[in-house]
DNA sequence: TTCTTTTTGGATAATCATTCTCTAAACATG
DNA sequence: CATGTTTAGAGAATGATTATCCAAAAAGAA
């Protein structure tokens, strides 16, 4: 069983547990989220699904995303113009956004994050329940392309 | 000269440098930003100013905020529903948002932030130009109020 | 100063992501 | 199959933000 299939089953399981009807639209969205490497927004999900399901509505995308968010199976990333979604790593983790190519990259695998969280809790007596960390700049491949040009 | 007056003069200076007209509306907004301890959003600024300047428009607030953002004198904090603004610390710094009382607190004075930035640049070969870090949770005073209750 | 030309502040209208509402379809039960 | 209940999802509404455009202010000519 591949990673994305495990993810897909997990999404379905949570929807079922909640007693939601597993319609073809919802199944297709869950699959798309589980196979998406990037971090699509609602419109991108909509446009992709519309080719196979011409009658699907944007509101259905939003409502199902909200369900999956509430079940902790999808992470919402609030950006300036809209929200993007991560269906593979539904826990808080840093994201790197390239201002050249627009890519939204995962920035987990940083050790110093736990230290930062601890320092915040200690310094400010603040009890953290969740965080959102976004870095804006230029990604590795864009930097390399620039250098070799 | 108080801190907020220094800040006020700095805002005015940048608007002048840019060749902007220093209207009463703009002066009032600059002053309000410089004396605000919290992190108001556009509507809050609007409502506050409207008592003294009944003809001011929300669009004027937004346009002046954009000017000051471009001049690096105001930091915009993108949150889920709207943007909030910091006219006193216009450089990126962490914010702590309390889900009980709604306060948006400054979370500068954390040493581990530079380590995190360095780790991101090294691990991912990403060139950071700016970041936004928001912690959600419960603030110190709300925790204390809860304990003593 | 007075008239003309140019700039731009800011009120109003438009936009667009997101949410609300309500109908029609799916489900359960007898 | 009939009848009552739930809910998916299409279309309408909302609300923060942005674009447009007119009037007022500045600049320049005479
Ligand atoms: Mn991610
Ligand atoms: Mn701040
Ligand atoms: Zn890039
Ligand atoms: Zn609080």
UniProtKB/TrEMBL annotation, chains A, B:
It comes from the Bacteria. One of its GO terms (biological process) is negative regulation of DNA-templated transcription. SUPFAM superfamilies: Winged helix' DNA-binding domain. It comes from Levilinea saccharolytica. Binds 1 zinc ion per subunit. This is Fur family transcriptional regulator. Belongs to the Fur family. The keyword Zinc-finger does not apply. Its cofactor is Zn(2+). Keywords: DNA-binding, Metal-binding, Repressor, Transcription, Transcription regulation, Zinc. The lineage of its organism: Bacteria, Bacillati, Chloroflexota, Anaerolineae, Anaerolineales. Zn(2+) binds at residues 98, 101, 139, 142.
């Amino acid at each position: 069983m591949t990673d994305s299939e495990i993810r897909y089953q997990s999404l379905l399981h949570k929807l079922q547990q909640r007693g939601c009807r597993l319609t073809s639209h919802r199944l297709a969205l869950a699959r798309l989220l589980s196979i998406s490497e990037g971090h699509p927004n609602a419109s991108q999900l909509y446009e992709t699904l519309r080719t196979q399901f011409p009658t699907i509505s944007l509101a259905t995308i939003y409502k199902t995303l909200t369900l999956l968010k509430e079940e902790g199976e999808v992470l919402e990333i609030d950006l300036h113009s809209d929200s993007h979604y991560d269906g593979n790593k539904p826990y808080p983790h840093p994201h790197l956004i390239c201002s050249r190519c627009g890519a939204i990259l995962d920035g987990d695998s940083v050790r110093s994050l736990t230290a930062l969280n601890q320092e915040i809790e200690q310094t400010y007596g603040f009890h953290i329940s969740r965080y959102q960390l976004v870095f804006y700049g230029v990604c590795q491949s864009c930097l390399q392309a620039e250098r070799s040009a």
